[in-house]
Design goal:
homotrimer, alpha/beta, UDP N-Acetylglucosamine Acyltransferase, domain 1, 3 domains, ten-stranded parallel beta sheet, 4 helices
């Protein structure tokens, strides 16, 4: 019983088919039944049709693979300052360090080797995987999931440069991660120079993402892997960043915007924008221009041929004298 | 005795010269002898010619700098669950945590501060540098080298979005790293939603690389720094990714393909492809188009001049009436 | 008393206004006074004019937020080899591991969970935040600030490939970080194959940056987040890399050059260059070409229309026979 990939499933498994690329694999699968979206046809198959197959998948996986109930308790090898306030059923792993005046909500889980700086606060049911670092005064909401190697609250990259020498501007702000946020492995969110760097409620961040000092990300955004957001930019609710995209500093990105993979946003975006490219332009424009890009050499030679033909005509008509002097390279 | 760079070598050292950029440095070097490829000439120099100078370099460095024999033994400050099975001569550093039912092969070395999740398995002679995290049920083959800060098995970035809210899809698969793999500092490989994320035997991964859930990378690939591979993509054997390249999800990349630096592969690649650009196109096309790109402003003005000349001709011939209405901006 | 953002400041706070985008916020702010650059006007406001407002900001923040005096002392849960030499007032956090023959200068602070490899050296007043890893023989200068998760001295990515198999080239060099360097969270600097990878004095590196083996970065450079520098490249003093930029290997970048965000430098740069694009070209060229890029589809249709008009003229003049055979697609 349970779920398995199309390749690995046997008659006792349910599998999933949503992406047309996998039709062949779905037809060849030994799965006992296949979860599909509305109206999907599949030969000789028992189908489990769901209006939103990924929501159904999430529910089924939660059913078949419930989160392990954690052991609870503070490990003897964790170092927790006496001034901390711990909620009920808090779990702290071995070799974790929890600084002075930290507040941990109920059922918070702090993984092995985490370091939680002084005066940080973590909300109920939040899980810190192993080796997360919170600089002092970091705030993380409830029901968050912070993956291994994440660093929250590192110094913002701020320097006053005079005569080639970079003087550090102390970064005295902090990082606030709201409720229901997930942050992927080895990502980094820097604290603000003044005030707060904010990750909005329900936002999901992938691995190796960088959020700079003073950025404010709205609720329900998605930041795919290796995305970077430069300092002081404000991102509205529900914005999606595809992988390896970037945004420069001091911008405003309107809600529900989409930034395509590898793109660089260099100016403000109106709500609902869909942009691509370096610098990012409307996605439709980018797509048409890119399609032509590969034909660029061909356009170059067409241009040359036309110049030739034009010259021929001009010569025949004795018109060359009309063209501006120096007009040809 | 030993090897040194061209600048630092003295008469007692062997140095290396393979890249034409360093001819001047090679000629000025005080090295006692210089290791070169077939047919290389260098004035007034003792040359050590090798058919494959980098293979010779590897052999010589192994000879002059043998890997230090490790001390062996489980450090008193490591926490190893009683249910683990350890091979012979296993070494585990201070403050490492090894979970329940973990199996470590012979001569495995687990660095200080590593966290190895329950039911993970590590093959013979594999080295985990300090502060590596393996999520539960991760499998690492024999003779691998996993660098500091690497995270294997983190949650894949999978959410079912309804009405702007992102519901987590539990990621119940795992990561399998085959034999002879090297993974660079602070890289992250996420576990599959279902089934496995696989890094093929002999593949070498540089620092800060991200491999997403369900990706399957074949044998003998090279992934240079900051590369990212999106979910479910399959990469054939012997594929090379230059630095900061990216691949989108659900693609198939044929074996021995090469992806140029900073490129983004957005569609399947036939075996032996060599691509560049965003989106990636055949490298030759990209190179010709890029060469023209910088001349783009010039092409624009050539176009404008031609339109002028054409208009002049048309006016002289009274031909304007033949051009389509609205044909001019 | 103290400093606050324009939005958060009350009458008891000083705030800052330098970027024109925030004029409205500055005018609406409740701040008691506003720090500005020379000649800035702001309605109904007490202004504190400074010739270099960011230098003044740095000074004021240092005054209002002095670095906390550290507790000092080696934590009972740190493991420090007997052969180490510690300066005066050294602080070492819990679960840090300091290897054999390490030398720490006066007032060095080693954060919780750091791992310092054998024979490394750290200069006076340098701070290692939690969970930094130094591979053996790494050298870090005085007054450096190395952020959480940084890995210095990992193996360079060097392999000798024969018949599809990648043989490791031992990396026997080391990393040298000079004085007054800052390195951001989760960045990685690899050690050289032979000789040294060098980060020059006063250089500031942001989060998630990758510096490959054998790179030499001059003094006073700035590397913004997610930048990558490939092997053996030499970067002159005072070079600026904007976010997500990259440089290929074996290049020389002249001093005071600027590389725009997302750009890829594929050839040497003269001193004082300002480049952008993939591959990077002079910034002015890139800007003009990019401006035209979005108009590319329009240029394509202008070209088509001209070809039509030219054909019309040629037909009228019976000139078609003069055009080269096969000249039309």
């Amino acid at each position: 019983m349970g779920l398995a990939t199309l390749e690995e499933a046997g008659p006792e498994h349910l599998s999933l088919f949503t992406h047309p690329r996998y039709r062949e694999a779905a037809e060849a699968s030994r799965a006992g039944a296949v979860l599909v979206g509305p109206g999907t046809e599949l030969r000789d198959r028992d189908l489990l049709e769901a209006p939103q197959p990924y929501v159904a998948l999430a529910e089924l996986l939660e059913y078949f693979h419930p989160e392990p109930r954690r052991s609870g308790g503070v490990h003897a090898d964790a170092r927790v300052a006496d001034s901390c306030r711990l909620g009920r059923e808090v779990e702290i792993g071995p070799f974790a360090v929890v600084g002075e005046d930290v507040v941990l909500g109920d059922r918070v889980s702090v993984g092995a080797g985490c370091v939680i700086g002084d005066a940080s606060r973590i909300g109920d049911d939040t899980v810190l995987m192993p080796r997360v670092v919170l600089y002092p005064r970091t705030e993380v909401g409830a029901r968050c999931r912070i993956h291994a190697g994440v660093v929250l609250g590192g110094d913002g990259f701020g320097f006053a440069t005079t005569l080639g020498s970079h003087r550090k501007i102390p970064q005295v702000g902090r990082v606030v991660v709201e409720d229901d946020v997930e942050i992927g492995a080895n990502s980094a969110v820097d604290r603000a120079t003044l005030g707060e760097t904010v990750i909005g409620a329900g936002t999901k961040i992938d691995d190796l993402v960088m959020v700079a000092h003073g950025v404010r990300i709205g609720a329900g955004c998605l930041l795919a892997a290796q995305t970077g957001i430069a300092g002081s930019t404000r991102v509205g609710a529900g914005v999606t960043f595809a992988g390896q995209s970037g945004v420069s500093g001091h911008l405003e990105l309107g809600e529900r915007s989409i930034v395509a993979a590898k793109s660089a946003v260099l100016q403000d975006l109106a709500p609902g924008s869909f942009v691509a490219g370096i610098p990012a332009v409307p996605h439709g424009t980018w797509k048409r221009a890119q399609a032509l890009f590969a034909r660029f050499p061909e356009l170059g030679s067409r241009l040359r041929r036309m110049e030739k033909r034009l010259e021929t005509l001009e010569n025949r008509l004795g018109a060359a004298a009309d063209s501006p002097p120096g007009g040809e390279e």
